[in-house]
Amino acid sequence: MRRPFARALAGALTLVAGAAVAPLAQAPTAAADSVVIGGQPVKVADSPWVVALASRDRFGGIRDGQFCGGVLVAPTTVVTAAHCLGRQVLGGPVDSVADFRVITGRTELRAPDGREIAVRAARVNPAYDPGTNAGDLAVLELAEAVPADHVLPMAGDGHPGYEAGTGAAVYGWGDTSGFGDYAYGLRAAQVTVLDDEVCRRAYPGNSDGQYRADSMVCAGDRSGGKDACQGDSGGPLVARGRLIGLVSWGRGCGRADSPGVYTRIAPLIDFVSGLQRGGRPSGV
Ligand code: 4AZ
C-alpha cells in the first residue's frame, strides 16, 4: 500500500488524497549509528535559517512537538514541504496551522533557547500534487520577523548548485536510523546532487513514485548511508550557499539505490516571492 511519509501525515492530520508516493522508512543499509542519516551534529547558530516546525497539541511535548523542518527565506517567510501541512485547500489559505510554532535558534529541541514564532498564514503551492508529490512546497508567514541575516537565499535556475556532482548539505531533526530514532539535536549530512537521469532510473514511476526533473531534484551518496529521513521533511538542501531543495520523499532512508528526492526551488521562487510582505525573499 502506498503510505504517507510525513510525520505530520502519519499523525493526527488528514491526508488530502489519501495517496503519497513514498513508503515509510524501510530497512536502511546505513549502519544504525549513522546519523539526519549519516550526518553530524551542527549548531543552528551556523545555519540560522533552519527552523523546526512544531505542534505540541498534535505531537506532544517530546522533542517539543517537532514534526517537520523549514527554511527562512525572508524575515517573516518560511518555506516547508506542502505535505507537512496535512489537510489543505490547494492554492488556498490553510486553516490548520493555528497551533504551529516555528522554532528558530534552538539546536537542541529540549533546550529553551531561541524563539517560538506563531504562523500568521500559510499558503500551499497551487501546483502541488499530493498524488505525485510534485511541487511539494508551502509558505508560512510568521507573526514576528527574524533578523535579516537569518535568511537563506533561494537558488534560481542558473545557479550552479543544481549541477550534478555538486556537494550539498541537508539539515534536520528527523530520524537518524530509519527505525524511528528521532534526533534531539540538529544534524546535517553531506550529499551529492545527482544527474536527473540517475534520479529517473531510481524512481521510474512504479509504486515507489516518479522523479520529475521539472519540479524535483535528487541527491544522495554513492554508497548510501547519507540521506534525509522521516521528520526532516520540509528542511533545507543547500548547495553553494543557496537553497536548492526541500526534503520531500524517497524510498526508505540511506539506501544506495534510493536517493532522497527534494522539491526543486527554482520554479517556485516567483510563487514564494509573490506572497512576501515587506521585502521580497532573495533569489537569483
Ligand atoms: C519522510 O518520510 C521521508 N530518504 C523524507 C525523506 C526521505 C524519505 C522519507 C528521503 O518524510
TrEMBL record:
Record CDD domains: Tryp_SPc
Signal peptide boundaries: 1-27
Gene3D superfamilies reported for this sequence: Trypsin-like serine proteases
TM ranges: none
Residues of the Peptidase S1 domain: 36-277
Alphabetized SUPFAM superfamilies for the sequence: Trypsin-like serine proteases
Keyword line: Disulfide bond, Hydrolase, Protease, Serine protease, Signal
Molecular function terms, GO-annotated: serine-type endopeptidase activity
InterPro entries referenced in this protein's UniProt entry, alphabetically: Peptidase_S1, Peptidase_S1_PA, Peptidase_S1_PA_chymotrypsin, Peptidase_S1A, Trypsin_dom, TRYPSIN_HIS, TRYPSIN_SER
Any one GO BP annotation for this protein: proteolysis
PANTHER family reported in the protein's UniProt record: FI18310P1-RELATED, POLYSERASE-RELATED
Family: Belongs to the peptidase S1 family.
The protein's name: Serine protease
